[in-house]
Inverse folding.
């Protein structure tokens, strides 16, 4: 039975959508930054076209782009929604430009890196796990250690066991304290 919002057919067009997405973003970035000078739009379109073709020819890159695109879309959508709500309640365009501070750019970079790390982990994680296993896939797990081991066949279980290891959690807390200390100690306050 067919549903109204059945998106199964759209999966066949993911290559076309990925090609267009990569082409448009790269062409826009090249046109904005103009690394080869003014009036080189033809060169920028050829470079964007070539990189878009290369991106869809690799299954891994195609899978990575397919994974991270909805997350970036949600990040941008939430940002626009917050701006819309703030503008409804009286925020002016000049105040938005003044709000483009280094803290906002820092958070955008942090969220971008986090999305890329999760995308790379989801795309290449299981493949790397299977290729990098020593002893021809033989596990050296003692009986009773299965629940905390990172040598299982399931990538998600390995990641969860590694992240929630007490030593790793302690390292994360120390790194967060250090990052916030650096951020707050180097911030300049204007009176």
């Amino acid at each position: 039975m067919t549903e109204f919002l059945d998106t199964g057919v759209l999966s066949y067009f993911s290559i076309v959508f990925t090609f267009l997405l990569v082409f448009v973003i790269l062409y826009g970035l090249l046109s904005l930054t103009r690394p080869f000078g003014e009036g080189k739009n033809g060169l920028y379109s050829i470079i964007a076209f070539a990189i878009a073709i290369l991106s869809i020819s690799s299954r891994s890159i195609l899978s990575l782009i397919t994974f991270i695109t909805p997350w970036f879309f949600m990040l941008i959508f939430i940002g626009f929604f917050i701006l819309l709500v703030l503008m409804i309640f009286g925020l002016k365009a000049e105040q938005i430009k003044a709000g483009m501070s280094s803290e906002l750019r820092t958070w955008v970079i942090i969220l971008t890196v986090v999305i890329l790390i999760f995308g790379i982990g989801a795309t290449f994680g299981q493949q790397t796990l299977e290729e990098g296993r020593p002893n021809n896939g033989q596990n050296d797990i003692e009986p009773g250690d299965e629940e905390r081991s990172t040598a299982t066949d399931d990538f998600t279980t390995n990641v969860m066991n590694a992240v929630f290891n007490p030593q790793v959690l302690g390292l994360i807390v120390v790194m967060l304290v250090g990052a916030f200390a650096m951020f707050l100690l180097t911030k300049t306050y204007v009176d």
Notes: The CA atoms of residues 7 and 84 lie 29 Å apart.
